[in-house]
Specification:
The chain is of the alpha+beta class and 863 residues long. A hairpin with a 5-residue loop joins strand 51 and strand 52. Helix 9 packs antiparallel against helix 12 and helix 10 runs parallel beside helix 12. The two termini are 43 Å apart. 52% of the residues are buried.
Length: 863
């Protein structure tokens, strides 16, 4: 029976027929409750008349609906129409069945692997939940227009009719469930145990997938005979024609994987479908980097018996090398699949946060376009242009599955890389945000949208809390870009041990377990996201310069390269179907200075990431470092005259404090294992090894005989130390856990140091180790920069968005006098003016600013 347009099946209105779908008719319909289009499969009336069969079907259909995997079509509803027809409402997939694709003949190995890996991934998720498909065939696999695979009809094999010797395209057997002796499945795609009427498990689906992959690779079904009984007999007894004979260009590792799936005995197949999926994906990813192997190479490979997954991966690497050699000698090669980028933003400025909405199509992001405060926008790849949401100025953290936003109000940079503000939650549709917690740098919704994980800055420490208030991990460095796994069990994050953005990709059990470091020794890490299904973590990193690339890592496995662009790509989010949300971010740090006798500020930027580190008392010289592409893998320290003369490279390192006489610059090497003294004129550099600790940002005392620096001993929080310049004999003068800062202002008499305390507020530390005392009326946004010549006051640099205020504060009374306000002439993309370095009389000064110009992209086809 064909349903007419307008027919109602519960809340679903039939729009048009799509076609036959195995055991029923499939229609395009509209869900009146949610206003979305769905696919509705109407099953024959006889299925509804048997209460036991109907109960079994409904039970398994609802179990399948909970699988929640990008390669499995989502079942929304199971119901009965007024005419007693049983129907299933499911996700509508625009595309073709695998059968329609196969009718065009065999496909290249790369395409076979791509589809096979996606099918295996979906099956692995179902098998992990105890659900076996039992009727996997090309008709039950959809391929969307974008190339994403969707498996249909989990559980429908239990409704199939007994085999009657008909054509092999028809469903077969299942009158009373899964009793041994009952044949279930589709002739030509069922396993030997199905064909013999024996009990089946997940390995039966592996056999069915093997038949599909065989047909894709050869254009021929492996066991097709003239009748259904003959086909069943072939499945049970016969080996298929060797795949290498039908298609010699098939890579040997792919042949081995298919042949293992087609083993007659289930024990000879893969021990788990996860292993099968992993091997297919590994081979697919290697082949994507080169052309297909030549026919001679594939035919000449030796077939093993049972092939371990590691051997398949190793063989895949050999395939790549063979393919590369083939390209060199001029053989024809298959085209390499290239990711497709869809540009989403077109303004000038920087993006703070970006996520896919629950519908998978809408993109929400926060940005500071053209110098305006951060606002939250929405856009879609299909309609260029963005719309501002009716929300206060805010930074976007996360979007929940319930369409609720986690945002940061009044967010400001807490270090050179990470803003923090007041966490609030607000519906995506708009409204007044409900404030939750102050000093939050990151927030992430749990998969069900009920809880939030946060990075909470408390007393100079960065805490990972989940739920809010329960501390899972704490560090004296900082934690970035937290993400909860799709199953809610694991939190991935970037662990930065110091004030730089280098560090480690880590995970921790959401319930509070062992922290695991997955990928280490990164110079810069920014951005993280879970792959669909949670098997892999994508992240953005670089081990040299600023050219970020996107990598993937699995627990216990090495990282792999995923995607790059000339100016670096930062991963923001990943949709359920594998589409990536990335931004192309051009980071630059520049230097501007008010110099003696100058009419205005002068640009003293050097390379791509120039940060001022000191200014001489007369304002004639600055020191700076380069930590971007220009600085190289280990960074570089420079001296530059403020008259505009070219910068002079002193050597490798980070930070550079000038001695009072200007003869030396004190720095640290790139990993903080030594303090290095560079002569600013003729002479040789010398170093002090940092024994038992890492040293950062040394500062000279006025007499030039001592330095103060931040030291981090193994397993301990940061302290301020003092040591002579000619021998490493450090003396701690602060309690453990002081804030990580780049500036330590030593008083003219050398007896006091102004820096940030354990509460990240300015304090006065005694050089002889006496207890520190706070500077009155200051807070965490105030950074001590330099003492006045009389030692009564400290210059304070206070950042406020695109401007910074330089004030003078009396350390006894807290009386504050504004000296000057510094503002970027071009505010577009300016993350902030980090700090202002004044001369003792404050007539001259230099400052650094960070500018990020972002473009947001949706990327398809990333593997």
């Amino acid at each position: 029976m064909t349903l007419a347009t307008g027919t109602r099946l519960g809340p679903y209105e039939i729009l048009s027929p799509i076609g036959a779908g195995g055991m029923g008719e499939v229609y395009r319909a509209r869900d009146a409750r949610l206003g979305r289009e769905v696919a509705v499969k109407v099953l024959p009336a006889e299925f509804s008349s048997d209460a036991q069969r109907r109960s079994r079907f409904e039970q398994e259909a609802r179990a399948a609906s909970a699988l929640n995997h990008p390669n499995i079509v989502t079942v929304y509803d199971v119901g009965t129409a007024e005419d007693h027809h049983l129907f299933v409402a499911m996700e509508l997939v625009e595309g073709r069945t695998l059968r329609e694709i196969l009718e065009a003949g065999r496909l290249p190995a790369s395409r076979t692997l791509d589809i096979g890996a996606q099918i295996a991934d979906g099956l692995a998720r179902a098998h992990g939940a105890g659900i076996v498909h039992r009727d996997l065939k090309p008709e039950n696999v959809m391929v969307s227009r974008e190339g994403f695979v969707k498996i249909l009809d989990f559980g429908l094999a239990k409704l199939s009719a007994p085999i009657d010797g008909g054509a092999s395209d028809l469903p077969t057997a299942a009158p009373r469930g899964t009793d041994p002796g009952t044949i279930m499945g589709t002739v030509g795609y069922m396993s030997p145990e199905q064909a013999a009427g024996r009990a089946v498990d997940f390995r039966s689906d592996q056999f069915s997938l093997g038949t599909i992959l065989y047909e894709r690779a050869t254009g021929k079904r492996p066991f097709q005979r003239e009748s259904a009984p003959q086909t069943l007999s072939a499945i049970i007894q016969d080996d298929p024609e060797p795949l290498g004979t039908l298609n010699p260009r098939t890579p040997a590792p792919l042949r081995w994987a298919i042949e293992r799936c087609l083993a007659k005995e289930p024990d000879e197949r893969f021990a788990s479908t996860k292993d099968l999926a992993r091997d297919l994906k590994s081979l697919r990813d290697h082949l994507s980097e080169a052309s297909q192997v030549s026919g001679e190479t594939a035919a000449g490979a030796v077939r093993p018996g049972r092939v371990p997954g590691a051997f398949v991966a190793a063989a895949a690497a050999a395939v790549v090398l063979a393919a590369a050699a083939a390209a060199i000698v001029g053989r024809k090669t298959a085209p390499i699949r290239v990711p497709v980028f869809h540009r989403l933003t077109f303004e000038r400025g920087s993006i703070g946060g970006a996520r896919f909405a629950p519908d998978g199509q809408t993109v929400l992001y926060s940005a500071t376009w053209n110098g305006i405060p951060s606002k939250i926008f929405s856009t879609r790849a299909t309609s260029p242009g963005s719309s501002a949401l009716s929300l206060p100025d805010a930074l976007l953290f996360s979007v929940s599955s319930q369409n609720e936003l986690a945002i940061a109000i009044d967010a400001k940079l807490q270090n050179s890389f990470q803003p923090a503000g007041t966490l609030a939650r607000v519906p995506m549709a708009g409204g007044t945000p409900r404030q939750i917690l102050e000093n939050v740098a990151e927030a992430e919704w749990s998969p069900d949208g009920a809880q939030l994980a946060v990075v909470h800055n408390v007393s100079g420490k960065s805490r990972l809390e989940y739920p809010i208030g329960k501390v899972l991990y704490e560090t004296g460095g900082w934690i970035g870009h937290i993400r909860i796994s799709p199953d809610g069990r694991t939190i991935a994050f970037l662990d930065h041990p110091a004030s730089s953005d280098g560090g480690t990709v880590s995970t921790i059990d959401a319930g509070g377990g062992k922290k695991r470091d997955l990928s280490t020794d990164w110079l810069s890490l920014e951005g993280i996201a879970w792959a669909p299904g949670g098997g892999e973590i994508f992240f953005t990193g670089t081990r040299t310069g600023l050219a970020w690339k996107i990598y993937g890592v699995r627990p216990g496995g090495p990282e792999r390269f995923v995607l790059s662009a000339p100016s670096g790509m930062l991963i923001r989010d990943v949709a359920r179907d594998g589409r990536m949300l990335v931004s192309q971010d051009e980071w630059r740090a520049g230097i501007s200075a008010q110099v003696p006798g100058g009419d205005g500020e002068r640009d003293l930027s050097n390379l791509d990431y120039s940060q001022v580190r000191d200014i001489s008392a007369d304002g004639s010289v600055i020191t700076l470092d380069e930590s971007g592409e220009g600085g190289g893998e280990k960074g570089a320290v420079y001296l530059r005259k403020t008259d505009g003369s070219p910068a002079v490279r002193l050597g490798e390192g980070n930070g550079a404090s000038l001695s009072a006489d200007g003869a030396w610059a004190a720095s640290t090497n790139y990993d903080g294992t030594a303090i290095v003294f560079y002569p600013t004129g003729p002479g040789q550099a010398r170093s002090l090894p940092c024994k038992g600790m890492n040293c950062y940002f040394p500062t000279f005392f006025p007499d030039g005989r001592r330095i103060a620096f931040l030291g981090v001993e193994t397993g301990r929080g940061p302290k301020i130390f003092v040591t002579p310049v000619d021998a490493m004999a450090p003396k701690a003068i602060s309690p453990e856990g002081v804030a990580f800062t780049t500036v330590y202002a030593v008083s003219p008499d050398g007896r006091r140091i102004a820096a940030l305390g354990v509460d990240a507020k300015p304090a006065i530390f005694s050089a002889d180790g006496a207890p520190p005392r706070p500077i009155p009326d200051t807070d965490v946004l105030d950074i001590p920069m330099r003492w006045t010549p009389d030692g009564s006051s400290v210059y304070i640099s206070r950042a406020n968005g695109s401007k910074t205020v330089l004030s003078k504060i009396d350390v006894a009374s807290g009386r504050r006098t504004i000296v000057r306000e510094v503002k970027a002439a071009d505010p577009a993309g300016v993350q902030g003016i980090l700090r202002v370095y004044p001369t003792p009389d404050a007539r001259s000064f230099a400052y650094s600013y960070v500018r990020v110009l972002s473009t947001l992209f949706e990327v398809e086809g990333v593997r």
